[in-house]
Design brief:
The complex is a heterodimer of chains A (171) and B (716). By secondary structure, chain A is mainly β. Chain A is 15% helix and 40% strand. In chain B, strands 13-14-15-10-16-17 form a six-stranded mixed sheet. Chain B has a four-stranded antiparallel sheet with strand order 1-2-3-4, with helices on one face. In chain B, strands 9-8-11-12 form a four-stranded antiparallel sheet, with helices on one face. The chains are: A mainly beta (171), B alpha+beta (716).
Chain lengths: 171, 716
């Protein structure tokens, strides 16, 4: 019996080529993309792997979510293009990076976090720890009851006291 | 007056207190008390919220704007905490833009705690962070009112048992002083000794007998109370609207009916009655001890505040550790559950080793954390127990000295040390009470949360008679599951009585939402749906739904017999009617092939029937109900052609003369529909017969072409 193997082509995706794809700012607030000479004045960027590979595999769609292409590596684009891409991504993903934890209190099955993002104090509530605290590869993502996301990009970088407070809730 | 809401993100993504106001068609955005945008809504079609990851933006869509939305104006950016507030703002502005009428913001659902400034959890009337423990106690006591007399009687019994127990050390003391210690000197007869021992024995028997009775009574009370609570929660869950239900998982709701009420029951049985006994005992013994020796009592009490403080800190610490252990345990269980459920996939991919390694890893983690916790417990708790009882050593030392010096009799010292047990027991119990109280408080709050949940779909106070013998009219209907995300908009449609409407469109277009609205599982946000001239919101829900029949794609059968499942639609139906319904649904033949016929037990969700058989039972159920409005939601999808033909045949009998709404992805199944309604992006895009829509060469024609190509591809 002959087994048909999967050819490398089957598992290949055509990524956006920086030579034929150019991003531009449109209307002062939207990102546009010129692809093979065709202009799309408003495109949306979505990370395929937002948690563990945010700088690669970024999907470009129109507002109706029709895919126009995928950026394989943001770094392949010129510095100016990269800054446009990153600006658009920062508008799409808001995930403040927690720098220290002031207090964590549990009351009635809710966990109340008082944290600092830089110098800005923030408070949020988490309900289901199992679902809403994800700890992978040294960083932690917390999702609060409203759907806001908070990041601790490097567990080793936050102070010892904060780490000790958080440790019982990580696993 | 301007309508005002707040938002919290600047254009460059900085967090800051900002506000948005709307007055006379103009939106003004203020950041850090500085006006950053003044937007005139003239020429604007609508406002829309775009929700991204952890944030979103509010945009104004111009009338006759570009299809790619590139000419929208971004009004503001916001974090997810502001979506509901801004959703209400969008409603007010959009209402003004479409009608010119001004409405007020309805922010009543967004309650903020005046004490801590935190938003209340959804559906709660209290702030969980600041909730006063008295609030829970008051509500629990009000629920326990019917049991008050029995509780009081049990309290009297417990007091009697406690009083009897306190007699034992007194008698022991007398025994030593009067007969053993004093008896040697005075030569008192042994009769008194026997009488005292008999009295001690009788006291113990009496105390234990009363305790047994009180325990039985307290069990009865707690079981009755928990059963009442369970019934109340279950009753409320049954009445909750689908939107309230969808906010909670089935497991979560089940936990509230079973686990939380069980926790309350155990607390009453194990802690409630003990609490009474121990408190009574503590106060009584304390008074006795002060009478015997104020100095020794003082020595007993000295370490208590320090130890109580240490124990409460310890509980807090260990509680968090045990919670973590519980979560790791729970994850380990779910990994195992996943592997067992997906064993076929695991085996087909030959990934047994990988799965074993995954499970081993979680087991190792669990073992590690359990060992550390047990170690901590083993080291700390005996030390705390020793500390708690340290007063006993002081008492023996000082008391012994007093006895030797003759300032205290040996009997008094014995009596005192025996009484110490009665003091330390309640103290040890009190030290563990906060943890137990915490657990039961959480459970009580969860129970009250369900009981207090406001129903989104409510019956009108002056419900009108439910007569569905007429046209179904959708008048400017707008609806969204989230206030900021309309799923259906501008729906205007008149369905004639007895007409069959086929709902067509891409996935996510809003077809199922439309039939959810017809079933009144949700209420429309704007506009109205009326049947025979009456708004369905003015009809009693139960009466309205009694006249509607539904056949879903996913048929749910209850554990029970086939007969029970068909008769579920009308429990008063006669066997002849059930059989007739099964015959009309083409279900009779397969039922008769089973050993027990209509008495065949189908098991949970009908697992021993095939998909087509389950579907036919469900159609029989709908036929038996004899509904005036019929809803078919993908009733024949995922079936082989032969079964589908049989079911189509059954359905054609069911549809006859009834107003029917049918959704089907396989468009050929809708060819008999009187009219087809094509829904695209939440709006009605096309209406007409199959032929008319094909001639129009629009969305429907495109769907038909795509389906033909797919079937050619699958056949080739």
């Amino acid at each position: 019996m002959t087994v048909t193997s999967i050819t490398p082509e089957t598992l290949t995706t055509d990524y956006l080529d920086p030579k034929v794809c150019e991003f531009y700012e449109y209307n002062g607030c939207f990102l546009g993309m010129r692809l093979n000479g065709e202009e799309h004045n408003r495109v949306i960027l979505t990370r395929a792997l937002p948690l563990n590979d945010p700088d690669n595999y970024v999907c470009v769609t129109d507002v109706e979510r029709k895919e126009l292409g995928i950026i394989e590596h943001i770094a392949d684009f010129s510095a100016e293009q990269q800054s446009l891409i990153r600006k658009e991504l920062s508008q799409r993903y808001f995930c403040p990076d927690i720098t220290s934890i002031t207090a964590i209190k549990e009351k009635m099955g809710h966990f109340y976090f008082d944290v600092k993002v830089g110098d800005y104090p923030m408070s949020f509530t988490i309900r289901d720890l199992v679902k809403n605290i994800r700890c992978t590869e040294g960083h932690v993502i917390l999702t609060d009851v409203d759907g806001n996301r908070f990041l601790i990009s490097d567990l080793e970088r936050i102070d010892k006291k904060s780490r000790r407070k958080l440790e019982p809730y990580l696993y | 007056m301007a309508e005002r809401v707040t938002y919290d993100l600047t254009a460059d993504g900085r967090l800051c207190p900002c506000s948005l106001s709307f007055e006379d068609g103009v939106i003004t955005a203020t950041e850090d008390e500085r006006v950053v945008l003044t937007f005139d809504c003239a020429g604007t079609k609508e406002l829309t919220l775009r929700v991204y990851v952890g944030c979103g933006q509010l945009e104004a869509v111009p009338a006759d704007g570009a299809a790619d939305m590139s000419d929208c104006t971004v009004i503001c950016r916001f974090s997810m905490s502001k979506t509901e507030e801004l959703g209400e703002f969008v409603k007010v502005v959009n209402h003004y833009l479409s009608t010119g009428e001004r409405t007020k913001l309805s922010l009543s659902d967004l309650k903020v705690c005046p004490k801590c400034g935190r938003r209340y959890a959804r559906g709660m009337d209290v702030c969980l962070f600041c909730v006063d423990k008295g609030y829970l106690a008051k509500r629990t006591v009000s629920l326990a009112k019917p049991y008050m007399k029995q509780l009081l009687f049990t309290a009297v019994l417990v007091t009697m048992a406690s009083a009897a127990s306190t007699l034992v050390p007194v008698l022991n003391g007398q025994l030593v002083d009067k007969y053993f210690y004093g008896g040697l000197k005075s030569g008192v007869s042994a009769k008194g000794v026997w009488l005292t021992v008999a009295a001690i024995c009788a006291t113990q028997i009496f105390s234990q007998a009363v305790r047994i009775i009180s325990q039985r009574r307290s069990n009865k009370i707690s079981c009755g109370f928990a059963a009442d609570m369970r019934a109340m929660v279950y009753d409320k869950i049954q009445r909750l609207s689908l939107s309230s239900m969808s906010r909670k998982t089935a497991g979560d709701l089940m936990k509230r009916v079973t686990r939380d009420t069980q926790l309350v029951r155990s607390f009453i049985t194990e802690q409630g009655i003990y609490a009474m006994e121990k408190l009574i005992m503590f106060v009584a013994v304390f008074i006795i001890l002060v009478n015997i020796s104020p100095l020794l009592t003082f020595l007993v009490v000295i370490p208590v505040p320090l130890v109580a403080f240490l124990i409460s800190r310890f509980w807090k610490y260990i509680h968090v550790r045990y919670e973590k252990q519980w979560r790791v345990d729970s994850r380990s269980n779910s990994v195992l559950h996943d592997i067992v459920r997906g064993i076929r996939v695991v085996k087909t991919f030959g990934s047994e080793e990988r799965e074993i390694a995954k499970f081993d890893k979680t087991c190792a983690e669990l073992a590690d954390i359990s060992t550390r916790n047990e170690h901590l417990w083993a080291v700390t708790f005996p030390f705390l127990t020793f500390l708690m009882g340290i007063g006993e050593f002081f008492v023996l030392f000082v008391g012994g000295k007093l006895a030797v010096e003759g300032k205290m009799t040996a009997g008094e010292l014995l009596e005192f040390t025996l009484f110490l047990t009665y003091i330390y027991q309640p103290l040890r119990w009190l030290s563990s009470l906060p943890r137990r109280l915490g657990e039961v408080q959480t459970s009580l709050l969860k129970i009250f949360e369900v009981m207090d949940e406001q129903q989104d779909v409510r019956d009108s106070e002056s419900a009108k008679p439910c007569d569905l013998d007429g046209d179904v009219v959708f008048d400017n209907v707008r609806f969204g599951y989230k206030p900021y995300e309309p799923v259906l908009r501008d729906i205007n449609l008149t369905v004639k009585q007895g007409e069959m409407i086929g709902l067509v469109g891409h996935s996510g277009a809003g077809k199922s939402t439309l039939i959810n609205l017809v079933m009144r599982l949700y209420d429309v946000d704007e506009g109205c749906i009326s049947v025979n001239g009456t708004d369905i919101r003015d009809m009693a829900q139960s009466e309205y739904r009694e006249k509607i029949g539904v056949v879903f794609q996913e048929t749910f059968l209850f554990a029970g017999t086939i007969y029970d499942n068909i008769a579920y639609a009308r429990p008063t139906a006669t066997p002849a009617e059930v059989i007739a319904a099964a015959k009309a649904a083409n279900a009779h033949d397969f039922i008769m092939k089973t050993t027990d016929g209509y008495n065949t037990v189908v098991g949970e969700n009908g697992h021993n029937l095939s998909g087509g058989e389950r579907q036919r039972v469900s159609i029989a159920r709908a036929i038996l109900r004899n509904p005036e409005i019929l809803i078919l939601d993908e009733a024949t999808s995922a079936l082989d052609p032969e079964t589908e033909a049989a079911i189509q045949d059954a359905l054609s009998r069911l549809i006859k003369g009834r107003t029917t709404f049918a959704i089907a992805h396989r468009l050929a199944t809708l060819k008999n529909a009187d009219r087809l309604v094509v829904i695209e992006k939440g709006r009605i895009a096309e209406i007409g017969t199959h032929r008319e829509l094909l001639l129009r060469d629009g969305i429907y024609a495109g769907l038909i072409k795509a389906q033909r190509q797919t079937s050619k591809f699958t056949q080739s």
